[in-house]
Amino acid sequence: EKAIELDPKDAYVHGKLGRVYLEQKNIDLAEQYLLISAVSDPEDVDVAHDLARICIIRGEFEKAAPFLSRAIESYSSTLDGRLELWGTYLRFKLRSLQIESEQLQRGRKIKVPGLGALLQVFERACLKMIGEAPREARTYVMLGEVLVEEEKFSEALSVWRQGLNVMVTLIEQEREDAA
């Protein structure tokens, strides 16, 4: 916070402070600093990703979609980025199940608002990740799960088969290399 006093417009410092608060689960302060950073530097995909995470935590899936879309291009090209996207998907899945559970406990079953928009973003992310790293079987698993959520069952089955074929090929290559 001392650095912000010295340069109140420093997007990098606001972004870093926002991430610290996000990790501490102080969502309101995290959002405050991340939004300032996003305004100062709209190209920062890490800030966009963190804002998507905040929206997911709050169950604001439709609001998360454009933030996550901005992060996909950069994140899908590196292993660390793909791991971040997989982690975000798992957090999203957990939060959507929590919301559904809360609705069921209240005796209501509603479609979770914004679910479809965010699922489409994750589907695009998976397809991009497969294009960037077609030998990572876990991406096929994630894409299959997204497709099931979208009720695209035959596509999910096809994607899972592709993932299994990737795994078999990798295992066969490891055996050949060991021999």
Describe this structure in words.
By secondary structure, this protein is mainly alpha-helical. The chain has helices spanning 2-6, 11-23, 27-40, 45-57, 61-75, 79-105, 115-132, 137-149, 153-178.
Strand percent estimate: under 5%
Termini, distance in Å?
Answer: 58 Å
The chain-level mean pLDDT equals: 89
* Count of β-strands: 0
CA-based shape: globular
Low-confidence runs of at least 5 consecutive residues: none
What's the structural blueprint in terms of helices and strands?
Layout: H1 2-6, H2 11-23, H3 27-40, H4 45-57, H5 61-75, H6 79-105, H7 115-132, H8 137-149, H9 153-178
Helix pairs in contact: 2-3, 2-4, 3-4, 4-5, 5-6, 5-7, 6-7, 7-8, 8-9
Features:
80% helix, 179 residues, 9 helices, single chain, mainly alpha
What is this structure, in a nutshell?
α6 packs antiparallel against α7.
